[in-house]
Amino acid sequence: MKKILNVLLSLFIFISLTHFGLCAELQNQNEFRFDTSDDKDNIYLNRTSLNTSLDLPFIKEKLFSSLFFEPRWDFHIDRWYRVELGIELGRFIYKWFYVGESLQYVWLDPGNDIPEAETRLVFEKPIRLLNLYQDKTKLRLFEEYTYDIEGGEATRNEAGLTLLYNPTKHSELGIGWRHVVRIHDFDSDQITTSMTFIF
Question: Quick check: helix, strand or coil at residue 195?
């Protein structure tokens, strides 16, 4: 199964790289997630992604493609506990509603690595808040469902909302809330803060 996943992941990455040119966008997201109940789930993540649109001859609508690398630091155990490498393909059903599916390889503890699939649903709408301009402020609602391909079972379901503000066209600030359901473990609620740089 892992060999098949590696072949599929390599194929998706190759297809995406053939379309990455001047239209590609590089993003670097830095996010802190603070557990509201105790310190067991305080996390820092750094997600670097290359994003572009794909025009495929057999699909009428444009697809969104994102190659990403995401290490996560757990403050409770004081180490990098999870590293993800993968690709996400998705499309905007409407201007404000996005559906995406990612295929990712995840390194956990030494010798423990798993292939995952993740479904992402995102609703995003510009809003007017206080004296901030409408075109710079957005509300994002999301749900993420993660599936362990090798184990053949779901592992997490996460949902939440984020208020986003773009002080410049090359940066984005966010503050929000996330509820994490670990299907075979504990649940948690997190307050999130983020800064994203866009190149």
Answer: strand
